[in-house]
Fold Thiamine-phosphate synthase.
Amino acid sequence: MNYQLYLVTNRYNDSDTEFLKHIEQACGAGVTLVQLREKDVSTGRYYDLAQQVKTVTDRYHVPLIIDDRIDVCQAVDAAGVHIGDADLPVAVARKLLGPDKILGVSAKSVARAEAAAAAGADYLGVGAIYPTQTKVVTHRTSIDTLKAIITAVNIPVVAIGGIKEHRLNTFTDIPIAGVAVVSEIMQAPNVITKVHQLRETLKGVMA
Ligand code: TZP
Ligand code: MG
């Protein structure tokens, strides 16, 4: 799995058509993974969106991860699920998903990261590293904690939270597997240009 430029969605006030267009442009421009992240929608609506997004990601051969919902992942045969502290325990999620689906877990501390890895996580999302408007974050995660987590576990670690193009160079020499980006891509005036720029800058950072 290529985690280098991981797009996590947010719908803001976009229509479904605009939302899907942004995802399509991002896939065409080179994001390596997409997570559909929906909060406060009905199961039916989540399923419907997931199906529509999967049609797009499939066309570009970009794997799709579903936030929070194992049932929605299975219903649309997505590549995997991303869960956090408020979701099912990691071992339970792994059991439900079986061995073949990707299981991503949010981890804010070394202890949580080690436990998630031991319980069957395939990758970790660590953050919020920088201030973010996209999610209410009570505790940010420091770069030092990010480094300690990478050292502690043997699975890929993705940095999230306030990831902007101008901050990518702060990850130079830190062996992250990638960056997870929401607003910098979803709210870009030109999604295609932004993804191209992020990819170009990442080449130097994750060499
Ligand atoms: N988890 C930690 S920070 C965050 C999530 C889902 C949101 C990141 O959004 P942005 O817009 O890239 O700062
Ligand atoms: Mg969650």
In short: The chain has a mean pLDDT of 97. The domain at 5-205 is CATH 3.20.20.70 (TIM Barrel). The first strand starts at residue 5 and ends at 8. The radius of gyration is 16 Å.
